[in-house]
Design goal:
The complex is a heterotrimer of chains A (about 375), B (about 450) and C (about 220). By secondary structure, chain B is mostly helical. Chain B has helices spanning about 5-45, 50-85, 105-115, 125-150, 165-170, 175-185, 190-220, 225-230, 250-265, 270-295, 310, 320-345, 355-360, 365-375, 375-380, 385-415, 420-445. The radius of gyration of chain B is 23 Å and the shape is globular. Chain C has about 220 residues and is an alpha+beta fold. The chains are: A alpha+beta (about 375), B mainly alpha (about 450), C alpha+beta (about 220).
Amino acid sequence: MATEIQEIDLKTDEMIINMGPQHPATHGVLRLLLTLDGETVKHVEPVLGHLHRAQEWQGQNRTWFQYQALIDRVDYLSGMFTSWAMARACEQLDGVTVPERAEYLRVIVSEMNRITSHLLWLGTYLIDLGAMFGFPFYPFREREKLFDLLEEIAGQRMMFNYIRIGGVLRDPKPAWFDKLKAFLDEFPDRIDEYEAIVTQNPIFLKRTKGVGILKQSVATDYGVTGPCLRSSGIAMDLRRTRPYSIYPDIKFDVITFDKEGDTWDRYMARILEMRQCVDIIRQCVEKIPTGDIMGKKQMAGMRVKAGEGFAAVESPRGVLGCYVVSGGGEKAVRFRWRNPSFCNLTILPELLKGCPLSDIMAIFGSIDIILPDVDR
Amino acid sequence: MFSNGDEIFKISRLTLVWLGGIFTIVWMVCWAIGIGLPMLLTNQLGEQANLANEILRAVTPVIAILVFIPINAMFMVLIERRALALWTVRKGPNRVGPDGNFQTAADAVKLLLKEDITPTGADAVMHTFAPILFFAPSIIGAVPLLAAVTNDHPLFHILNLPTGIFYVLAAGALPVVALVMAGWASNNKYSLVGGLRSAAQAISYEIPLVLSLVTVCLMAGTLDLVKITQQQAGGILNWNLLGGGALIGLNQALGGGGAKALEAAYPMGIASYVCAGLLVCALTISFWLYLTGACAEINRIPFDLPEAESELVSGYNTEYSGMKFAIFFLAEFTNLFVVASITTVMFLGGGDNPIPPYILDKIPGIPQMVAAIRDSFLCQTLHLVNPETLFATLWVIAKVYGLVIFAILIRATLPRFRIDQLMAFGWKRLIPLSLIVFIIVVFAREFVNIHG
Amino acid sequence: MANLISRAFGGLNEVRRGLATVFKHTWREPITKNYPDEMPDITPHFRGRLALTVNPETGDHLCISCRQCERVCPDKCIEITSHKSPETNKLELIDFKIDHGLCMFCGLCTEVCPTLCIINTNDFEMADYSRQSLIYDLKKLTLSQEESAFYFERKEMPLPKPKPAKPAPAAKPAADAAAKPADAAAAKPAAPSAEAKPAEAKAEEKPAEAKAEEKPADTKATEE
């Protein structure tokens, strides 16, 4: 019977759907050209560039001081990391030593920023999966609390401009650490609540288990980094594999799973990572020394010594690298960003091939890209 | 514990004010047309008014439904937004009117004033006709329910069809056509996918839904909604949710019948008791099956695939705006209400008090209160209130809106199925389960003396 | 079969757990606020609308037309008009324009300002009906004495030293300049919170000599 059906060549037309650039679930202005056979995806072509803002060119046309304020926009959900990558690249060139207190503060605010980024991902991912009205508000509630804290020291909620070349902008008061500790005490309970609603929910499991399996070979071929890579069983975390800042002094394990990860594993990796962040911040708050917070004078006309430098940090989305060439002047000669979102997005056609239409969002959301980071 | 007392107080006040308002208005209109006006005419014209009175009485239920449905949908949207806000630690609508009570009225006015757009290349006739066809069945389907939920009030007696539930289900199957029409006529690929999905989904989930209701009808031995309701009278143990009459003997025994009543109801000793237990389990499963199927039938989360926002933008109603969209919206909430009403009538005893009468009568004050209402001027002369109908309707309101709130809670929690998983869940899980339940009921009811 | 049933019950139990967790939120207080009625808590260093302060004690305008902010602004949204006063031979401010439609609120101008004149207020409600009305001029930008005092206290900025030759500004410009360093030294310990941010107080000493023609690298000012 089955062979009979195969022999009769039922001719069905493929349907081409243009998903995006304005679509509720493409997280910005990504355009996916889908070739569908019924509800099955035959081929996907991501079309990038709708959000291109010439971030690299702007870096070459602004002074170092001005460009610091701009790079939070490269990846607006984790501005601390973009600042940090640039600061580290320039410090490398300049030979500035960052005071230890500043390094601790950098780790604290960056890990806070990592939590906010993952919380936003968690909320929007559940929206992608259709839990549209209830759950997504809970992560956003905690995210706002963190932003309140970050606003207090940086001055703005997302465009921090806090990590500067040579140090950090402002030294928080002791009261700020108390507030942070209160949040850290409360937050694990909140994660437990999220998990009670989501992790073992049968519908969530059905949507995510065994869906969008990222093979290790594919991941390494395409240069995938971050939680996506770690959930596929490759323990690559820059904070451990190429330690920077004060991470060698901090106790934590790279979160990784033993198998090739599916969508659920990527979810779980991020949940575990949030718990880990709480742990890291706790250690930092306990250990933080007193002292100076700025190793280089912040001024409008500051210069960076000539040469080229590259520094990478482990951002919530993966390895975020900044390559910089300085001619010793007020402006950079060349800026180049290595963005995790761009590299992670390239695996999308591999993952989506042959999956049903509804899985596009489950898989696409789990990669956690952010469009300004892709297009710069 | 009650750090949120203020919001809870506001939401309960809103509910009481709206519900009180809606039902008072609807009942006053019904009374004026169906009772007040005929009384006046008979006084003035005597015999000559008979024909006019008949027409007025026939028109009353239709007017009742037409008045009730839009106001009720507005209230349901408001309560949904308020309840979701409560569960998402927000405040919800609070700008228009006191406590935001008129928010949905303002939204409705906005929608009605918006431009009505028919997209280029769309089939204009079908595009216009689809929302009407979507909305009409929910009104038609609500008609026989009215008699059941008012405990067969004389005014609505005319609506009581002997094949009530069959009629309701037939009407409930119609909107699928409208959704496919809307999807096809919109000239939009997302809409088309949404429409086709809804057809596939509705057809698959109709089967467990109907089978679960069939088990109830099998227990009741009738399709008549009023009879099904009346059989469940006498407290929570008599409801179809708990065996649909399998526990009636127990209820009688507790009510003073003693061992004799037990013997009469369970004539075959231990086998009867086991079968009664099986029936209770079967009917409870039926209840949940029905709720699941109904959720899928009216496209609510977790079965809202036809309008899955993150995938299909907004599915079949992507291309709708203004009044047509308002009608889709109205129909969706009316469908939710109708489904909750059917559940109440079929499983939760309709207007029956969950506390059995033998306990209720012992509570001081209640029999006197009922008697006082019965003897009052309002009841005796004006027929404005009737204790049977009044209390039945209050219980129905409580049960129906309880189910609505439960549906909202589900909406706040669960993510959405994937379409193939949804079909698999329907065909491979729900349908076999409902068939098993059906077979259990068929055999087990022979061992128990149901309904005395 | 048994596996199926146990899985079904496990799944239902998880759904129940989720529903219960959501339902528990009934008793949590809402975190949102009725915004226009209740203002949000804005932290002191929040970077809101730009404004120019006056000396909270004397009411003198603090801007010295050094054009540092104009030069550092990445969006080029600041425009300063000034002229050299023939009497005192110092720069006098004529107009100060900020296009808030262009501004990205990075706060760099406030960091380079030597006299702590330009600040980010905590105001964020600037919605208006035209782009033109988002260009604020000197009058619209300058804060009153009370507002200045409020922000100086809130942002913990050291109070500016009083202008030394206030009684006779035009009389002896040379003597004025000579007196400056001494005055500054006297004013510094007097400033109430000078010890909190000594860097800022130090920065204050230079600005008087700052001229528009100078390269930015020379007239650098630091904040923290």
